[in-house]
Specification:
The protein has a two-stranded antiparallel ribbon with strand order 1-2. It contains nine helices and two strands, in the order αααααααααββ. Helix content is 63%, strand content 4%. By secondary structure, it is mainly alpha-helical.
């Protein structure tokens, strides 16, 4: 284990290969050394997560690498067996397992991207934000009042939405210019 850790540190320092390949190779070597009676797989995955963090690959904070490996358990064992044959004699092919580990990271990043993408504001959300602000204000209002409630929406966008609402008969404009009052149809309250 001391030799493995020393080789890892030198590899990262000297940049012998890409750090992700080094991390996957370390993981394979750790599993082949098999330092514990039980729990080597779990420890190897924890070490992988830690090494990813140290290398700046933090997807494991948001997407469980453990879960993705579990979902691909059969492939995990197949590639581990294939890559560990001849390991003790230095006559093994690490690439099946290395590619598996890299595919796990790629899957995690894809899943993270899909999740982050679904959080982004859907098309038309600024329009809905203006609609909500108009309904919530409960009194006559100006464009500036809506700007305060919808700080991420441009003045032009607010005007466009208000004109659309006016055309639909939802609001009416009283006056002109920056101080013009807008009124929700059916609302008889005064600005206050």
């Amino acid at each position: 284990m001391k030799l493995l850790i020393k080789a890892w540190q030198e590899c990262i320092k000297e940049r012998w290969t890409h750090p992700l390949i080094a991390m996957a190779a370390f993981n394979l070597d750790f599993l082949c050394v098999h330092p514990f009676r039980d729990g080597n797989g779990r420890v190897s995955r924890l070490l992988m997560l830690l090494q990813c963090y140290h290398l700046g690959y933090e997807v494991g904070r948001y997407i469980s690498l453990e879960r993705i490996i579990e979902e691909n358990k059969q492939r995990y064992y197949e590639t581990l067996e294939e890559s560990s044959k001849g390991w003790h004699d230095g006559k093994h092919d690490p690439w099946p397992y290395l590619n598996f580990v890299l595919s796990i990271l790629k899957t995690a990043y894809k899943e993270f991207e899909e999740r982050a993408g679904s959080i982004r504001s859907p098309r038309g959300s600024k329009t809905e934000m203006v609609h909500h602000a108009v309904r919530a204000i409960g009194r006559d209002f100006t464009v500036a009042d809506i700007e305060k409630k919808c700080s991420i929406v441009s003045r032009d966008m607010i005007r466009t939405v208000l004109k659309s609402m006016q055309k639909a008969g939802e609001v009416e404009c009283i006056g002109r210019g920056p101080g013009a009052l807008w009124k929700i149809k059916g609302n008889t309250s005064k600005r206050g």
